[in-house]
# Entry
Amino acid sequence: MSAERDHLAFDHLHRIRARVGQIAEDVGDLKHRMTSLEGAVRPIKRQVAYRDETKARRQVSLDRLSERIARIERTSRRSRSTRALSIGRVRSTI
# Structure
């Protein structure tokens, strides 16, 4: 009976070792695949970062243009109001 138990225990250990070996191979394969994926994702991250940087630069340019347009409009309003005052003075002297 003892020999039969030993054989059964050794059989289970053998199957466990085989399964652990298979799992180790699978993990090695997964590590390799992850490394490949990380390498493939790196250029995509770079492109996204470049796109975000470009978008930020465009937004800064648009903000500067908006500020410039606002200054031009303020200057235009001031000059129109100054002209209106001047025209009013000229008419009142006539």
